[in-house]
Structures are given as structure tokens and as C-alpha cells.
Amino acid sequence: MLQTSDPRNKNIKVYVNDGLYPRDEAKVSVFDSSVQGGDAVWEGLRVYPEGIVCLDKHLTRLHESAKTLAFTDIPSKAEIKKAIQMTLDANGMDNETHIRLTLTRGEKITSGMDPRLNQSGSCLIVLAEWKPLVYDNNSGIKVLSTSQRRNAPQYLDSKIHHNNLLNNIIAKIQANVAGKDAGLMLDDRSFVAELNGSNLFMVKNGKIYTPYAHACLPGITRSTVIELCKKSNIEIHEQDITLSQLYNADGVFATGTMGELTPVVEIDGREIPKGDSLQRKMLQLFSRNIRSYCETLA
Ligand SMILES: Cc1ncc(COP(=O)(O)O)c(C=O)c1O
Hints:
This protein is an alpha+beta fold and about 300 residues long.
């Protein structure tokens, strides 16, 4: 699945650091930490007319990632919300919109890794684009397990939502080369971690399972699915899952803000059923409830 450019995004305005700029003029310096070392944190947000899905959880994760990386001058939630509101208003967006919210460590006085070279505070970017759900959630996606491992905490804690995405990008390249939609990443023990850009769930014998968040992003859509299961008395467990268990599941689905809930219909050439009644129930439960998770910016 290759995303295409939406003509509605041709003339969008983007918030960078201190205000809004037309798309072609929205830039960071070559001295910015994101250019120099991928030294930035980010969130993907989805906008519905009712508001932004789980906004507070996303802003908390952005703040926690920035604190772990010892950023200074981190904008408050109120300041970030104001920048988001300005951006959405400027673009007339209130639906079918995805926001890439990035906070970089900011500009350096000279090139180098040392964060002490960052003397002008962090830099906030609000990139809002017209972007409906990226996958076809009826036909589902095909995935390939890749050789690239997802980080466990001894390397780089996957709980930090940072811009050092190269291991996930390498996994995606492996999937692309094989003509599949996403790369499945294992952890350092060879248990399933997640797809290169979304979390994984498995349905088996009337129960739902998802890997522990040891070596995957603790996704916010993942936590919504877990919460919905608990509220609806659907048995859900976090546990170590092997590839063999996934191949033999009654259903597998991926979760993320970009695509919401997407059936996985093939893993390494093995067909995965997508008609399981519990999986269908879960997908319906999610789409019926997701707008109740929207929060307004006011
Ligand atoms: C590696 C990875 N896994 C999972 C997700 C899904 O997370 P969320 O549900 O918070 O969008 C993302 C989204 O950014 C991601 O980058």
C-alpha cells in the first residue's frame, strides 16, 4: 500500500516554531536537531468533527518522551493545543485529518550531538493534512516478518516516541521489496513486537491477545482496544506471542491512529482468516465508539 498525495494538501499551512507558514515555506534550519540526529519526538493525531482522538494521552506521551530525552523549554499542553487550533482553523480542517505533531530539540549553535549546543529551546511543528484512514480496513493488509528487530529497553526504549525511526524504516523496506504492506518486527527474544508502524492483536478461541509493550510502542489505539474489551467483557491478555501462534490465529489485526483497526490477512505467505466473529465484533465496537474518545481543544 503506497499513500498518494491528496490535492487538498497542496496549499496547506503548517505551524513551525513561532507561527504558520505556507507548505512550501514551512522549514526547519539545517542546524535543527531533527536534521542533525533525528533528535525529536512526535505524535500522530486523528481529527474528527467531535475533536481529536485521545488528545490528552497523546500530549502526555509527547511530554514524557521529551522529558526522557531531557529536552528543555517544552511547550505546555495549553500552548500545543493553541498551535493545533491555529493550524486546523487556518486550513479549515475538522474531519478526515491527520496531524503529525513533532517537537525537535531545536536549533544548535553549531553541528554536533551535544544537547548543550541547543540554546534556543525546542521547536514545535504541527503538520495537519487531509488524510483519511490509510488502509482499506475491509480487505486488510499483507505483512512480512523482517530481520530487523524492534528495540528493547536495553538499546533504545520503545516507550520513547522518537524520530530515530530507521529500524522501523528498514523493516518497511524489507516488506516493500517483498511486495507486502508492512514489516512485522520481532523483539530481541524473537517474540512478536509489532508492525513497523502499528501494534498487533491476535484472536484465538474467543479471546484476544497482544504482545507486552516491552519492545513495541505502547500505542494509544492499542490501549483503547484493551479498554473497549474490558468494558465489553471480552477476554484480553497481554502475553508473549510467537510467529507460529500468529500464523495459526483465528484472526490478526493491527492498530494505530493512521489506520485505526486493520485486519492482517497474510503473514509470510500464510493466509489469516478475517471473518472471525470476535474480530468483526471488535472492529465494529471500535468504529462505533471511537468518536466518544474525541476531545476538544478548548
Ligand atoms: C512503531 C509504532 N507502533 C504503533 C503505533 C500506533 O500508535 P498509536 O495507536 O498511538 O497511534 C505507531 C504510531 O505512531 C508507531 O509509530
